[in-house]
Amino acid sequence: MVLLEMRNWYIEAGKLADIKVLERNLFQVPVEEIPDIKVLLTIVDSKVVFDHTTSLIEK
Predict the structure, then answer these.
(1) Distance between CA atoms of 34 and 29, rounded to whole angstroms?
(2) Which of 29, 39, 51, 55 could make an SS bond with 33 (beta carbons 3.0 to 4.6 A apart)?
(3) 3 state DSSP class of 56
């Protein structure tokens, strides 16, 4: 049996957030290109656990 938790999908102060930031908009690319989209940032329980964005900033 699988139990799914219903959530309110908004972010506000005091709430935990799990978020992924992708390099491209999934809704604007051809389906065959979706597997090639890179993750730039991952936040779990409001903590950054993966950050590839700093290497993308020009110095």
Answers:
(1) 7
(2) 29
(3) helix
Closest CA to 38 of 52, 22, 25: 22
User: Residue 44 is encoded by which pair of tokens?
Assistant: 């779990």
Tell me the residue length of the chain. 59
CA–CA gap between residue 44 and residue 57 (Å, rounded): 23
- Whole-number Å distance between alpha carbons of 55 and 40: 10
28: tokens are: 């604007």
pLDDT tens for 1-48 read 444 455 556 667 777 778 888 999 988 999 999 999 999 999 888 788
Distance separating alpha carbons of residues 52 and 37, to the nearest angstrom: 13
